[in-house]
Design goal:
Elements (H helix, E strand, L loop, with lengths): L1 E8 L8 H5 L6 E10 L14 H7 L8 E6 L9 E4 L3 E5 L4 H6 L4 H18 L43 H14 L1
Parallel strand pairs: 1-2, 1-3, 3-5
Antiparallel strand pairs: 4-5
């Protein structure tokens, strides 16, 4: 069972039901209590007011006894991504520009957190109990929107298709199964 530590990075001006996240039952991962808040030290340093990877890396706490640390924030991340991967199995996910889409479509904000937990847990397993860095040229997402937790969502409005039911498309299942078969 993968142990995941979640922290709130900076101020999130939306209501997130932490208890819903903490009570989530999964055969893949366990969420460690509590969900703490971490203050952002410093300002955005990107050309478009985003926080660069170097900046976020300095903001992230250690994962301690957890296998994966997920930092949830509302600030814009480098290259307009909604998830970035960092050293020592740490991941940062943002609601920036996505929260309005979720609210408009009446999708609970917690669904984005859960999607991120599932996709990164499977990536962790796929890559030998580690989260690859952003600089590593690996392929585990796909550009086409299929309603899969591995959709790239280059157009963030398409994220709604992968947040209800948390599905994995047939091609991703086949890819994950082939990795699993190689380990047996």
């Amino acid at each position: 069972m993968i142990k995941i530590k979640i922290v709130i990075l900076g101020h999130i001006p939306y209501s997130i039901d932490k208890n819903k996240i903490l009570k989530w039952k999964s055969n893949l991962f366990e969420i460690l209590k509590p969900i703490n808040s971490v203050t952002i030290n410093g300002n955005s340093d990107g050309k478009s007011w985003e926080f660069t990877d170097d900046n976020i890396e300095k903001q992230l706490p250690l994962r301690d006894e957890a296998d994966i640390l997920l930092a949830v924030t509302n600030i814009p991340l480098q290259s307009n991504y909604f998830v970035r991967r960092f050293s020592d199995n740490r991941v940062c996910m943002t609601f920036d520009t996505i929260v309005e889409i979720l609210i408009k479509k009446n999708i609970p904000l917690e669904n984005l957190i859960l999607r991120t937990l599932y996709s990164n847990s499977l990536v962790y397993i796929r890559f030998g109990n580690r989260i690859p860095l952003m600089s590593e040229n690996i392929k585990f997402t796909h550009d086409e929107t299929r309603g899969c937790i591995f959709d790239m969502n280059g157009s963030k409005t398409n994220i709604v298709y992968s947040l209800n039911g948390l599905k994995i498309c047939d091609l991703c299942v086949k890819s994950l199964k082939s990795i699993s078969d190689c380990k047996n």
